Amino acid sequence: MSQSLLEQFFPICAIAPTPKAIRTLQPLCETSGITLFVPSEFQTYRGVVPYTEKLSTHLNHIWSDYQAILFVFATGAVVRLIAPLLNDKCRDPAILVMDDAGENIISLCGGHQGGGEQLSRLLAQQLGGEAILTGASASLQLPGIDVMGKPFGWRQGRGDWTEVSRAIAHQTPVRVIQEVGSTLWQQHLPQDYCFQFHPRDTQAQAEVWITASEHHWDDKIARVQWHPRVLWVGVGCERGTPKTVIEQALQTTLQQYQLAESAIAGIATIELKADEAGILELAQNRNFPLKIYSAEELNQVTVPNPSTVVAQEVGTGSVAEAAALKAAQASSIERKQEIPQLLVSKQVFKADSGAVTLAVARSETEYIGRTGQLYLVGTGPGQVNQITPIARTAINQADAVIGYSLYLDLIQSLQRPGQIIESYAITQEKERAERAIALANWGLKVAVVSSGDAGIYGMAGLVFEQLARQHWDGKTPGVEVLPGITAMQAAAAKVGAPLMHDFCAISLSDLLTPWEIIEKRLTAAAQGDFITALYNPRSRSRMEHIKVAQTIFCRYQSPDTPVALVRSVSREDETIILTSLQEMLQHPIDMLTVVIIGNSSTREHQGWLITPRGYLGFNR
Ligand code: SAH
Asked: What's the mean pLDDT in 358-370?
């Protein structure tokens, strides 16, 4: 299993006490990098880590080393084992329990914050089992309120998380006040959600604030605050100003303007200060990205308080305000011209050991702080059971799923609460690819789904082409292609073994390929005696193409050559017709059909197509 799919849960370990449990987990652990602990008597199994002490002692030792622990024990035994160790739901590992066949995986503890629910889903998909989730938000088809901001890099602020979660679980009205950050999460809520988005809705029992401010309340209503990282702090300072002075200036500014430190995206300054120790230390200590701009770049930014003195010294009339605004502007995802807001204009702080100027700008788009990921997923011909386990996992794990509406409907059962689902019309391939890349560049994990295989007349190529056009470095965002069963394979499997010898696939769509080239390839395939699968055989605007294709094949192949017309394979309205080259046009062929034309040795036997490979001797 791909590491990147489980990355957010690592390190993970599993504890398997019996040979059966070991056999169930061993392949998964080996491919995914999960540590598999086993009692020492089973140390000869491949890839396991034996423990010699009592299990409770062993558990005590490893408790804080793992973010998630999967037990293959009776639930009661696990409850007893972990009870003395449970301490803090924000820091304890997620605890999962499964039966030794991997049929049921219970998310026991650390459901939301520890990611236990999500991890249970992923592992269940890998093992072909079921995730047992008892959290209230899972049954409400909502993401937990304490995890909903995570994909967007939001930070949890002050608040009564337990009480607000309870209000949501009881489906009492909860008011949402969103001041900043992406509203994408609002677009995919279940129909009967309990959130209220209008301030005039008065009966709310609890409130969720999504804000860059640090609110302090003293009335009784339960509230929580999420802080999207939208604040960019522009910093200028005298040479040698210590970190503590800059830090103090920042604290004072945040307090004065009631801004939340957790809402800080990063800091920005001028090239001249790229080696300023105090600024570098602050960025490093707080894990803030540091953006550096040249005097020339900063000079182009319009600011409220330019200074001629500064302009003479460093070549730009503003450092702090201009750098803050520039950084805020640069974080826009859609390359649209968002105008950032200067929340705090230039503040000057003088200390004995230096001087600092600070300004704070707010970006429209929050900083996620993660490298995004594109999963180019093939979902197979139709039924969900024809999707590979890893492709299912990628779909389920993604923050956003993008695809053609019909295919998204087919994989609805794999979607999970809180996911962003964006469906597009069949013709909008470019828009789909652009959107997916924009979201991944921003920092989201995005699954782009294609039916069949994503790399066979699917979205994979287009996404790569567009990435390359944007001078992609091959790594950021990460890309993974997850193959699927293409229509040709699914159709072939339904009719027997027609692809047993050299074959090719040709699309009859001339929307993107000149018809002369298609004709040339058809001729070559027929001449070369390839078994040929025709994709996109006919549409309303291309009624004649299939006739031309048939004529070309008739020129080189016997009129009796077996042909399979397979329509909507693996979907509800699947139809299969076995015919011959000369008679194929007497049957309906449309855009949902794949046509398989045999080679000179393909033959039909009792309703099955067989292309001999030659094991039983050449029979030509
Ligand atoms: N990426 C897809 C192909 C997309 S092109 C894949 O790998 O299968 C669309 C063409 O694929 C259709 O015109 C049809 O010829 C074929 N096709 C896709 N799904 C099909 C299905 N379930 N049954 C038969 N043909 C199918």
From this structure: 95
